[in-house]
């Protein structure tokens, strides 16, 4: 399931609607369609949305995020033009479901977004809490990503509070 509207509809019914997080200005991003790509707004926050891909040989989920420059070449998103949040929805079979909700400031610190001082990236691998990486790089990546991951299988009130906090700050 990687169609933007299909995944967003699922997430909306399971997460956003029950927590009164209204979606506005929903748009698909065709250049990254294989990754359920789109943008929308929740409250005052602009959101770039992606769906992680499970790959057959590596742990974690792969995701891309790039745009075309004036010369029609792929380039990383720039910090000064980036949405407030990058949300990467992850699935593990039919049993686990979660979201990474990265503020753009964190993406700049991690050299994901480009700026005058950083090159930026056009893709990365994310490691949900249910993954146990063994390589040093993957362990370090999961460590910086962990505070931004929410396991959506937890249907408690604390999950609701956390979602509202992250989307409406």
TrEMBL record:
Source domain of life? Bacteria
InterPro entries given in the database record: MepB-like, MepB-like_sf
Protein's UniProt name: Mep operon protein MepB
**Source organism of this protein record:** Exiguobacterium oxidotolerans
């Amino acid at each position: 399931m990687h169609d933007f509207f299909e995944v967003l509809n699922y997430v909306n019914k399971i997460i956003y609607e029950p927590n009164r997080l209204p979606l506005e200005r929903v748009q698909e991003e065709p250049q990254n369609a294989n990754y359920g790509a789109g943008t929308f707004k929740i409250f005052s926050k602009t959101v770039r949305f992606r769906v992680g891909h499970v790959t057959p040989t590596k742990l974690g989920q792969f995701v891309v995020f790039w745009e075309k420059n004036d010369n029609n070449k792929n380039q990383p998103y720039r910090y000064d033009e980036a949405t407030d949040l990058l949300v990467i929805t992850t699935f593990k079979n039919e049993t686990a479901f979660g979201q990474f909700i990265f503020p753009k400031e964190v993406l700049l610190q991690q050299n994901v977004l480009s700026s005058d001082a950083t090159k930026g990236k056009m893709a990365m691998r994310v490691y949900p809490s249910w993954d146990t990486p063994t390589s040093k790089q993957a362990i370090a990546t999961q460590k910086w990503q962990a505070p931004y991951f929410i396991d959506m299988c937890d249907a408690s009130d604390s999950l609701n509070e956390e979602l509202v906090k992250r989307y409406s700050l």
